[in-house]
Design a protein that fits this description.
This protein is mostly helical. The protein contains eight helices and no strands. GO terms for molecular function: DNA-binding transcription factor activity, RNA polymerase II-specific; protein dimerization activity; RNA polymerase II cis-regulatory region sequence-specific DNA binding; RNA polymerase II-specific DNA-binding transcription factor binding.
């Protein structure tokens, strides 16, 4: 009995110790569980921050596009590639790039106008040559149809009469069209008279008229 009571007493002590240990353990905070459950909430970007970030990105894209545009201009415009000794080895500023681009575009416009004028002049020359070609073909055909015509030599007097008739006809139109108030007005009138009264077709009609008139006088 004494042994039984001793064992019972020890069992009661162990039981109380376990009870106290479990109670104290339950009262102590469980740091491991809290560390596993605790997490920091993600940063929520505000509407103002999103707008600021979008504006910054848009501004950067705009700056990049402008920079690319200036770089393309420097690569395209020949005068931008030429060394400017007043600037030296420094990079061309945007203002200089723009000015050189404007100057080059104006130069191209002048060249285009000059080429258009040259093309117009060449077209007139081609038209005159075509008229001369037709006239020569008619002369050759007339000579083939009448081989005996024209064998007689034309005198210098006849040549002079033909020349005089042509010049008289031209002088009449020249005198009626030209004003001599000032040299500037004279120059303008001369060019206007040449374009109007010295066309190949007009000269052809004058020559034909003079030749017909001279032929009627001779025969």
């Amino acid at each position: 009995p004494a042994l039984f009571m001793e064992n019972a007493r020890k069992g009661s002590i162990v039981s109380r110790a376990n009870s106290i240990g479990s109670t104290s353990a339950s009262s102590v905070p469980n740091t491991d569980d809290e560390d596993s459950d605790y997490h920091q909430e993600p940063y929520k970007e505000s509407y103002k921050d999103r707008r600021r970030r979008a504006h910054t990105q848009a501004e950067q894209k705009r700056r990049d596009a402008i920079k690319k545009g200036y770089d393309d201009l420097q690569a395209i415009v020949p005068t931008c590639e030429q060394q400017d000794f007043s600037i030296g080895s420094q990079k061309l500023s945007k203002a200089i790039v723009l000015q050189k681009t404007i100057d080059y575009i104006q130069f191209l416009h002048k060249e285009k106008k000059k080429q258009e004028e040259e093309v117009s002049t060449l077209r007139k020359d081609v038209m005159a040559l075509q008229i001369m070609k037709v006239n020569y073909e008619q002369i050759v055909k007339a000579h083939q149809d009448n081989p005996n015509e024209g064998k007689d030599q034309v005198s210098d007097e006849v040549k002079f009469n033909v020349f005089q008739g042509i010049m008289d006809s031209l002088f009449q139109s020249f005198n009626a069209s030209i004003s001599v108030t000032s040299f500037q007005e004279l120059s303008a009138c001369v060019f206007s008279w040449i374009e109007e009264h010295c066309k190949p077709q007009t000269l052809r009609d004058i020559v034909i008229g003079v030749l017909h008139q001279l032929k009627s006088q001779l025969y």
